[in-house]
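note to self: dont lose this again. the chain is below, predicted strucutre after it. 326 aa total, dont forget to put it in the shared folder this time
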Amino acid sequence: MRVVLIVALAIILFPIFGSAQAMVEPKGTGSITLSYQYAYVDQHLFGTGENYRVLSNGVQTSDLGTLSSHAIYADFAYSITDKVAFSVSLPFITRKYTAPDHPLGPGVGAHTLADGSIPLDDGNYHGSFADLGFRVRYSLWTRPLYITPFIEYNTPSNNYMFYSHAIVGNHVHQLNLGTYVAGLLDPVIPNSYFQLRYAVGFPEEIVGISRTRENAEAEFGYFINPTWRVFGTVIGEITHGGINLPNGPGFPRDTTNPLFFHHAQITRDNLLDIAGGVQYSINDRMDFYAVGTHTITARNMHAFKYEITTGISWGFGGSPQRPCHC
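---
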């Protein structure tokens, strides 16, 4: 019975795309979450999902450089009422692009500006605060399923660079509308739960190109005992509109062309990731967790060879609450 209660209180989604909850905590309770993330990219995927580039001399190569990043994520959540909660999140990210030893040609390896300078892809780490996120959740239904619609707005926290491999974000304002659906799987699979998340995103129009994004996540979790749980997640995104990054030498690859200069902001990004992790409940108010993520397939994006996230979440207010906001 205690395990079932913990499952009911701990239906959460770990920070693959940011914090999420299918359950709104009681009025006056909240959480503070801090997490560290390391990611490594060794594939650059183009418009049809290919991981190679045909250079101007006709040579095909998949050695297009690597990307490493370190990030610290801070998230604050608070329940205004028993049904309405809000959260604020802000990451600090630092990234480094390492170009291959062989030459790749203009616009393929390190990204340069018109004057020949390299703003970010010089082989060093460059860091900045990224996008500030605001989310409001409403508990619409709690029996037999948790159904929690949400509205979210992401905005750049500063005027960071959006051109180069080693950017901390795309510098795009975006409104997201969606919902969480979650529930227990007892008695079919005792001590287990599921959570689904679906959202439609509306990024701002850039250089006359508009897009919409659909993204979905499905999580299955199992409590080994009241202290430990394991979970697996599948994450997918489909973008409608935008451009594909074509292969071959025909695509203009200089900063005087707005399509190339803004390509990170206007591409048709599709992806499929898988993730798995574990959570340890230190006490009634504090959880520690670790998550690993890998990109199965994607288009017009960097693909994670691996992404490792660890963090700790502290719940406060009212009677002791599980943090439930990892």
